[in-house]
Amino acid sequence: MKKILTQRFKPLLKTVVVFTMIFSLVFGQAHDALAAGRSGGRMGGGSFRRSAPSRSYRAPSSGGYRGSYGGYGGGYGRGGGGFFFFPSPWLFLGGGGGSLFTLLILAAIGSYLFQAFRQAADGQTTAGVSNPSVSVAKVQVGLLADARSLQKELNQIAMKSNTGNSAGLAKLLQESTLALLRHPEYWVYGGSQTKQARLESAEAEFNRMILMERSKVAGETLSNIAGELKQKDGSAIAVSTPEELAQRDPGAYIVVTLIVGTEGKLNLPTINGDDDLRTALNVLGAVSSDKLLAVEVLWTPQAEGDVLTRDEMVSDYPSLKLV
């Protein structure tokens, strides 16, 4: 019996061992890769769902006419069912034209036409509101590492901002763009990107941009997302030591990324110089709270002593241009 059980479970045991080895190998390598990365900060929040209509459309009922004129009611109540009744011309000629029955028929027809036009108009409005046009925009600024004061300012904004409502998110966006506008002497690189789409696909594009930027850091040592503040010690991310930095490329940078989802069309210039970058930041900072759907501000490095080298800048942000 023992021999039979061993033979049956032997293939299963082999499978478990193989999967255990693969799991250990993959996650062990992933941990080593993250340990060699850099820190990041992140703040923001919002929801694309607040653009959805607050009420659903319900076609008006015409039950009264159906009840009074059973055979005719199928054509009056709803635009798609039954048949359309049109009174015979003989009703208006030779004695019946002024009868109460004729007036009721005319009232029913008028009511049907009014409801049909109203339903068509409300249907168009509801369709436009449920999937409106949305802009998703991204502006990135590469700064010299000397801008440590800006880095600290972003940390302070993240610590005190209310990211749980639209007004707080609009203020966060304004303060972040203002912090960048106050330090043009540190600007080295810049880039912008805008995509306009319907609500459903715009939300997916916003999330794609966020994930792409978050994947460039080993971990977020400071985050304030949707009212939830989290802070980790810088030692949680294995940043380079001063001795290691001295052996690497001496260039050091900070990258700040602003990603915004807003109702309507948002025009950002293609960044080819500092004037274009200034215009793009002003456009983002001017987005009002009633139009702002979601915003995230990400910056790297965030932990003190961590840097972004020139080689990392070129490899991770190839689309940015010198300003």
UniProtKB/TrEMBL annotation:
The keyword NADP does not apply. Keywords: Membrane, Signal, Transmembrane, Transmembrane helix. Residues 48-62 have a biased composition (Low complexity). The keyword Hydrolase does not apply. Residues 1-35 form the signal peptide. InterPro entries: DUF1517, FLAP_modulator. This is DUF1517 domain-containing protein. It comes from Romeriopsis navalis LEGE 11480.
